[in-house]
Amino acid sequence: WLAAGREEDGQVRFTQPEIALYDIHDQANNRPGYPDFIEIGERIFITETNKTIARVHEIDQALLASLFGQFRVNSTVANRTLAFSSTSQGTTFETPLLPNPSSPTAERDGLTIAVWLINHHDSAVGQVLIDIGSLSLTVNANKSITARVVDAHGHGGTLVLDQWCTSLLLDGQEPHLFSFTLDASAHVLLFSVDGAVCDGGSSSTAGWAWISNLTGNLTESARPTFSLGASY
Predict the structure, then answer these.
(1) Fewest CB atoms within 10 Å of the CB: 5, 37, 42, 131?
(2) pLDDT (tens digit, 0 to 9) for every residue of the chain, 232 residues total?
(3) What is the pTM assigned to this prediction?
C-alpha cells in the first residue's frame, strides 16, 4: 500500500492508501518484503525481496498523481468508467461486464459500487442493498454490511464492514457515501466510507480481505439484470 504525504504546519498529512504492489501466486510464503524507495527526478522506484528474488519496481506516474491529487477536494462523482447510476430504488439495470480475476484487463481490472446511505440505523437485518448474483451487499444485525463475491466456478469470499466504518454510517442524519471495491488484479476486497478506506480500526487487524481462490469470470455467475434494494 502507498499513501502520499504533505507537510502542513509542522505535521505530515497523509492521503488514503492505494495498492501499489502485490503477488497473488504465493500469498503465504512469497510476499514482498524489506522495501526501500529510490527517487530519480520525478520517478519513484520500490525495491523488495522475499530472500530468494530481489526486484525493483517503477511506480506508475498515474498512481502517484492520483495519490497527491487527493489533497484537492473533489466533490464530483467519478463518471469516466461509470456503468450505471440511479437516484431511486427498484430501478432495474442490465448487469454490466464484471471483472474476470483469472484474466484481468485494463478495462475489467476491478469495480466499485458506491451508494449514498441515509438513516442507516433504520436498516433491517438481512436487508439487501444490491444483489447481482455473483456479488451482493447485505445488512447484518449490528448494522455492518457484508459483501459476498462468487465466481463462475463457485469460488469466492466475504468481507464484513468493520466497527469503525459502521459507526461512521450511523453518525447523524446526513447521507454517507458507502463504497465497495473489488480489485480483480490483486484479488482484494475493500470498503470505504465518506472517502476513508476502512482499515479495521481497533476491532480488526485489517479492513480488507484477500480472496486468493477467485479463478472464474464474475459475469458468467451474475444475473442478466438486477435492481437496487428497498429504502430503509
Answers:
(1) 42
(2) 999 999 999 999 999 999 998 877 665 666 778 899 999 999 999 999 888 889 999 999 999 998 998 888 666 667 777 877 877 776 778 888 887 777 766 555 788 999 899 999 999 999 999 898 899 999 999 999 999 999 888 888 899 999 999 999 999 889 999 999 998 888 899 999 999 999 998 888 889 998 877 777 888 888 888 878 877 7
(3) 0.87
